[in-house]
Amino acid sequence: MKIIKAVKTHIISGFLGAGKTTLLQHLLKQKPENERWAVLMNEFGQIGVDQRLLPSQEGYVVKELLGGCLCCTSQLPMQLALSRLIQEQQPDRLFIEPTGLGHPYQLLEQLSEPHWHGHIDLRALVILVDGSRLHDASWTAQNLYQEQLQAAQIVVISHCDLMQDSDKQALQSLKEHYWGRVDHWILAEQGRLALAQLDIGLRTMQRQLKPLIHLQKPIAQGEESVEIKALPYHYIQHNDQYQIAGWRLPKHWCFDFYLLLDTLTDLDGWLRIKAIFNTNQGWKSFNFNPAQFNYQTQPENLDNRIEIISQTTLDWGHIEALLLACQTKQD
Question: What Pfam families does this protein's entry cite (predicted)?
Fold first, then answer.
């Protein structure tokens, strides 16, 4: 009986038209003759097209899931399909291509559950970005586009041969914006990329949602910590190099804009600050690095939120107290 080893599993995601299937075509051509590979593709609609675009040859199998994204409406079908694919095909390597309308971080969280330990060996999350559309603010400002980038460990820039100067400038801004989050930026012409560039272990991030620091109570001996999902909450996640502390606060909490701006600019020890707040001057976004303090008017958001990236542990309780003191009204 063959012993089933954890399958090296790559999630190849990206927004609509980024070139995920083209990249998969090139990756599949790199399969060693003695290995068996598998692909699980997800189409948001009810008619599968992408599967027909992959070259047909022995040594790998392609399965499709239609009607919704893997991380939302199709969670149970995804888990069943993935389990069956691994058990029946026993692949040496697996590629998962979520729909361009999917939420890769949620999928990553699902596949990081203990149930999958020993079955899949998650590799670095890959997000494709269409380099020729980086200049298009109406495209790059979409929430789902940004959410996918926030989950990325590797960003592959496709259609780079079509990039204009404005695209290249936008790419540099993008790198600065996601500095400390994205480990690798790779330019790929026509989807041509060596598998070795993507075959990197998943960066482990410890993240747990908790009540606001000033609301937390000490955990008694033998008591379990309970993760909270409702607003308001905060979290701290970290890897070997960076810490990211974040807060999400109810939408109706309003903050004094100038007091908040002074508070953020007076903070020390951070590498990056990104935030969206409902203020008495309207919704404002903040994008700070040590060299630039940028803020601008922002469309109404789902909630107030802020993330602070640092290389050392800051006094998060003190920072939270400063933020809350900027409120103009309480519950």
Answer: cobW
| Phi, psi of 158, rounded to the nearest 5 degrees | -95, 170
CATH architecture of 209-324: 2-Layer Sandwich (3.30)
Instruction: State how beta strands 233-238 and 209-210 pair.
Output: antiparallel
What tokens does 138 get? 């109406």
What fold, for 7-197?
Answer: Rossmann fold (3.40.50)
Distance CA 300, CA 283 (A): 6
- φ/ψ (deg, to 5) at 46: -100, -5
Residue pair 176/182 in contact by the 8 Å Cβ criterion: no
Token representation of residue 268 = 């020390």
pLDDT over threshold 60, residue 252: yes
- Of 61-75, 220-234, 244-258, 269-283, the poorest mean pLDDT is in 61-75
Minimal CA–CA distance to 326: which of 277, 268, 272, 282?
A: 277
Q: Tell me the C-alpha distance between 129 and 6, whole Å.
A: 29
The residues, any chain, with a CB within 8 Å of residue 112's CB and separated by 6 or more, are 122
In angstroms, the CA 26 to CA 28 distance is: 5
249 vs 235: CA distance, rounded Å: 12
Please write the tens of the pLDDT for every residue from 28-58: 889 998 999 998 887 633 333 344 445 555 6
| pLDDT number for residue 88 | 87
Where exactly are the structural domains of the chain?
7-197, 209-324
Sequence-ordered list of residues with C-beta below 8 angstroms from that of 185, at least 6 positions apart, any chain: 154, 155, 157, 171, 175
Per DSSP, what are the bridge partners of residue 297? 284
Cα–Cα dist 20/23, whole Å: 5
